[in-house]
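A.,

Following up on our hallway conversation. Structure tokens first:
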């Protein structure tokens, strides 16, 4: 578990390394939801997602002599690019283990940041192989379930509270649960009455299943178009944080996430990936929870989606 002090330390540690992303209001979405709606544009972050915050915090917490041969991580999406970018910025080589069905745009972008990409059959195999790299002296960075990583992601929540003191609700998506756990820690430590709403898409619902079962559940496959929500399972730590902090987890179908993606593109002029646009789809479903005095922040966590893929998604 992490606390506010961990998030504050992360904020100081990564200052100047990451962007303070904008928080903007949306009149059209406010009318649609029936509340004051704001967008936290984390998709404008370096590498196109929040992931660099946690990766920088983990690596910068280690003295230079203890960073090993370089960085190694498992990811089929945004974490891959973040670790590759952090390695390049700090002069460290990086190896990313990626499922072989990872979309080409993610592979190309990760290589573009200077990482060596190793394709493996699936995420489960990748997590098994990473132990061998650790034995050889590589520093691994977990995509979500690591205190330093979660504290780094929590700086998003700190920025929300600073930029919008009247915030009443935050809607954020869940992959493995570290991102929303970090945000919730920061927000609720300062403003305990703020409600945190989690979101998953059908076919990438590891947290929903874990909450129902009372323990982490390993998904047999990720079938959602929101591939960057495709953690094979949550952990005991992130499950505990979800129980502690979240009002609930709203499960939305891909079709609603894609409809929200198009709406954000038309109204807000931002191209969010489905793992981010699903927050708007969830807010639509949660409309009755909000009112004219509500100040609702939708966290758009990433924008790494290929235009060709958007065109191929079903309407």
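Then the amino acids I'd put at each of the 315 positions:
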């Amino acid at each position: 578990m992490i606390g506010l002090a961990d998030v504050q330390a992360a904020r100081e540690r990564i200052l100047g390394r990451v962007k303070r992303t904008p928080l903007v209001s949306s009149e059209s979405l406010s009318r649609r939801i029936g509340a004051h709606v704001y967008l936290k544009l984390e998709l404008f972050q370096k590498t196109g997602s929040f992931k660099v915050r946690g990766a920088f915090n983990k690596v910068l917490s280690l003295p230079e002599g203890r960073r090993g041969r370089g960085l190694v991580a498992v990811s089929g999406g945004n974490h891959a690019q973040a670790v590759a970018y952090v390695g390049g910025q700090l002069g460290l080589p990086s190896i990313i283990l990626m499922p072989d069905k990872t979309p080409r745009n993610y592979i190309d972008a990760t290589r573009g940041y200077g990482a060596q990409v190793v394709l493996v059959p699936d995420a489960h195999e990748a997590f098994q192989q990473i132990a061998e790299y650790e034995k050889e002296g590589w520093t691994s960075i977990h995509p979500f379930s690591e205190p330093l990583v979660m504290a780094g992601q929590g700086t998003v929540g700190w920025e929300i509270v600073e930029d919008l003191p009247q915030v009443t609700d935050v809607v954020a998506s869940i992959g493995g649960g570290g991102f929303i756990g970090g945000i919730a820690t920061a927000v609720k430590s300062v403003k305990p009455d703020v409600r945190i709403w989690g979101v998953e898409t059908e076919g990438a619902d590891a947290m929903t299943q874990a909450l129902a079962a009372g323990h982490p559940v390993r998904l047999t496959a990720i079938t959602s178009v929101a591939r960057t929500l495709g953690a094979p399972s949550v952990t005991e730590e992130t499950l505990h944080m979800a129980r502690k902090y979240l009002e609930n987890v709203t499960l939305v179908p891909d079709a609603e996430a894609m409809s929200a993606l198009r709406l954000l593109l038309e109204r807000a002029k931002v191209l969010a990936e489905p793992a981010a646009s699903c927050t708007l789809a969830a807010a639509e479903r949660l409309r009755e929870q909000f009112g004219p005095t509500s100040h609702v922040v939708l966290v758009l966590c990433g924008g790494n989606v290929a235009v060709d893929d958007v065109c191929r998604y079903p309407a």
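The mean pLDDT is 94. Curious whether your intuition agrees with the design.

B.
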